[in-house]
Amino acid sequence: MTRAKLDLIRKMTPAILPSVLSCDFGDMKSELARLTSAGARALHVDVMDGHFVPNLTFGMPIVAGLRRHTELPLDVHLMISDPLRYAPAMVDAGADLLTFHVEAVEDATYTAKEFRKLGVGVGVALDPETPLSDLDGCLSFVDMVLVMSVKAGFGGQPFDSVSLDKLTLLRDNHPGLLLQIDGGINAETIGPARQAGCDLFVVGSALIGRDDYSAALGELDQAVRSADATPQARVK
Ligand SMILES: O=C(CO)[C@H](O)[C@H](O)COP(=O)(O)O
Predict the structure, then answer these.
(1) What is the CATH number of the domain that holds 39?
(2) Which residues are known to be catalytic?
(3) Does ligand 1 have an atom closer than 6 angstroms to the CB of 209?
(4) Are 179 and 198 in contact (CB under 8 A)?
(5) Could you give the CA distance from residue 210 to residue 192 in angstroms, rounded to a whole number?
(6) How far is the CA of 145 from the centre of ligand 1 (A)?
(7) Which among 30, 148, 187, 202 counts the fewest CB atoms within 10 Å?
(8) Is residue 234 included in any domain, yes or no?
(9) Distance 184 CA to ligand 1 centre (A)
(10) Would you call 119 helix, strand, or coil by DSSP?
(11) Mutation choice for ligand 1 from 53, 157, 163, CB with most ligand atoms inside 8 A
(12) pTM, two decimal places
């Protein structure tokens, strides 16, 4: 049952999740080895369908390939138009935490309940322009909210600070929810996100491709620790 991995993820917070989107896909085995030895504790996996978002990445075979070569929890972010259609196969492929976009579905509560039946951790994501009120109703059936700090679709975009207000509101009103942020996270933006109550930080271009993954993860970890040490921190 992969919900056990969800408990693992809860226990590891605050945590930085490398986004494999920025990896060298021709050399994933060594990317996985480098990330693991640098101390990554879970991986963020971006699935894009060229329809819900204009970019196209990969599907179940790649998720299954990652699963074969790592024990780390796989946090799969579905940027696809029909998440319910592919969710069971993604779970079979090895997803531990499966996130759909609220903008992609007609009924987020129904979708979250159906995902729950698959035995995985369930996340709901929202783009920067989507109001938090669009999550009304579904929050009782999800484990995590993924607050996008860029419009879903591409790595390497600048951070949108509208995400910080959303994190603050979610943290104040839903203390039990895991909160994740994705897009433009680096050593400068990770601190404010932590102070706004975020637990899980997806990092792509500020980490992957750097010469020394340990040093890059260390800098990000240090920025989280500094944020926790500041008096205005509103983290749990
Ligand atoms: O979901 C994503 C894009 O839709 C990526 O995970 C995200 O953008 C991470 O990349 P970066 O840290 O370079 O912004």
Answers:
(1) 3.20.20.70
(2) 46, 182
(3) no
(4) yes
(5) 23
(6) 16
(7) 30
(8) no
(9) 7
(10) coil
(11) 157
(12) 0.96
236 located within any domain: no
Say what the ipTM of the complex is: 0.95
Q: Which are the contacts of 44, defined by CB distance < 8 A and separation ≥ 6?
A: 17, 18, 19, 20, 21, 75, 77, 182, 202
Q: Which residues in 173-186 are b (16+ Cβ under 10 Å) and which e?
A: ebeebbbbbbbbbb
For residue 202, the surrounding DSSP H or E stretch is: strand 200-203
199 token code pair: 């637990």
- Position in ligand 1 atom list of the atom nearest CA 77: 1
By the 10 Å C-beta count (0-12 exposed, 13-18 middle, 19+ buried), 62 is classed as: middle
Number of domains in the chain: 1
Closest atom, ligand 1, to C-alpha of 154: 3
Q: Tell me: the pLDDT tens digits for 120-149?
A: 999 999 999 999 999 999 999 999 999 999
Residue 47, domain extent: 3-229
